[in-house]
TrEMBL record:
GO terms for cellular component: membrane. It comes from the Bacteria. Pfam families: AI-2E_transport (PF01594). This is Permease. Its main location: membrane. Belongs to the autoinducer-2 exporter (AI-2E) (TC 2.A.86) family. InterPro entries: AI-2E-like (IPR002549).
Length: 425
């Protein structure tokens, strides 16, 4: 009788089947079958379902864990690869970025020649490369070549002028009475003629050492400059020729939507063009015009014109950092006519270049407030050196455009948060 109640070999019965078998069984040895406890059957069924659900969840969690592990492993290898690629390219980062910016600036010229040459991309890129070399690179090399001797001559002249006691004469005739009056009216400032004179001499000494060190370093780095120049030309060629393919690949790898990608690329391209055209072109024009005025009054034009061009990047004061002290020097040395001429020349003509031409050329970057642009330039110079003149505005613009994308992407949440804040008030 016990064998009649056992399940067939190879079969598994659930709690419900067992209960059914028990109810259908005949009395054993004359003993009635005890009634089935339905509550226990329900508990057994629930336990069986829970075991099956737990097994399913465990299998799914295992599959998810495997996928998650694979994802993190791939991302880790990608991060390692990008890090070592950055180490390899870091010595040439500034050169490559400059080539990218020039490619964006001359992209319309490249498109024109490509259409003119019936889609021959390599030929069009070579023509643009030759154009860049003739129009930009050659004048820049000639400028630097002539700048180094004049830098040394200017430092030597200033040192000799100070050694002759001319600064003492200027203080005696013009500045001592001013500092005496300042000491009487504002003694808390603790500024005297002697301390001011010592500060001027110390600043002149440091400036002279910096200029001489810069010129010597440039001569010593000639081979490195040639290497970076050749790399710039090669990179510019391929960025012009294959730039569209590179951009398409980058867009494919980013999870951003198409309109967001276009917004970022269009804004950065537009701002880089504006910085080069409205920044560097205006600075070059102001430096050239200022150098002409300085040459007329007998001040070395190439060196101080270059300094004036660099000072043009400083908002608000601009080229006044150079020509105002130059006018003061002419006044202190009794060159009144030259001082008046330089004031009119720089105050009217040179300044008007910045006033009228820069807003037109930098109209695409006008969304950035002047204060933030000023901070971006100063911070860029401190962080990246001379390349910060370019990097600062571009980095700031990228931050601004990402904030705008964030605001557009989460505008509903931001609106609801703002409405909740108003209701709370």
């Amino acid at each position: 009788m016990d064998n009649d109640l056992a399940p067939p070999a190879g079969e598994t019965t659930g709690a419900t089947d067992i209960a059914a078998d028990v109810e259908a069984a005949s009395p054993v040895d004359g003993c009635p079958v005890p009634p089935v406890d339905s509550e226990k059957v329900a508990i057994a069924n629930a336990a069986s379902a829970a075991i099956q659900a737990t097994s399913s969840v465990a299998k799914e969690a295992l599959r998810f864990s495997s996928r998650n592990l694979l994802t993190w492993f791939i991302l880790g290898l990608l991060a390692v690869g990008l890090y070592f690629a950055y180490i390899l390219l870091r010595p040439f980062a500034n050169t490559l970025v400059l080539a990218v910016v020039f490619a964006a600036l001359f992209a319309p010229v490249y498109t024109f020649f490509r259409n003119a040459f019936k889609q021959r991309e390599s030929l069009a890129a070579m023509v643009v490369l030759l154009f860049v070399v003739v129009v930009v690179i050659v004048p820049l090399v000639l400028l630097v070549t002539g700048l180094i001797p004049q830098m040394r001559h200017s430092v030597t002249s200033v040192t000799a002028w100070l050694a002759e006691g001319n600064l003492d004469d200027i203080f005696t005739r013009y500045l001592n009475p001013f500092f005496d009056w300042l000491h009487e009216e504002a003694p808390f400032l603790d500024v005297t003629a002697e301390s001011a004179k010592a500060d001027i001499l110390e600043a002149a000494r440091h400036a002279g050492q910096a200029v001489l060190g810069l010129s010597a370093n440039f001569v010593g780095q000639t081979l490195t400059f040639i290497l970076h120049f050749l790399l710039f030309l090669v990179a510019l060629f391929f960025f012009l020729k294959d730039g569209a393919v590179m951009i398409a690949r980058i867009k494919y790898l980013t999870p951003l939507r198409e309109e967001q990608q276009e917004r970022i690329l269009h804004t950065l391209s537009r701002v880089s063009r504006s910085v080069l055209a409205g920044g560097f072109l205006v600075a070059a024009l102001q430096g050239t015009a200022g150098g002409v005025g300085l040459a007329i009054v007998g001040i070395p034009p190439l060196f101080w014109g270059t300094v004036m061009a660099l000072s043009a990047f400083v908002p608000v004061v601009g080229t006044g950092l150079v020509w105002v002290p130059a006018v003061g020097f002419l006044l202190f040395t009794d060159q009144w006519k030259s001082a008046i001429f330089l004031t009119l020349w720089c105050g009217l003509f040179v300044t008007s270049i910045d006033t009228f031409l820069r807003p037109y050329l930098m109209r695409d970057a006008s969304g950035v407030p002047i204060l933030f642009l000023f901070l971006a330039i100063l911070g860029g110079i401190q962080a990246f050196g001379v390349f910060g003149l370019l990097y600062g505005p571009i980095i700031l613009t990228f931050a601004v455009v990402m904030l705008k994308i964030y605001a557009d992407e989460y505008q509903e949440q931001l609106k609801s948060k703002s409405a909740w804040a108003r209701q709370s008030e």
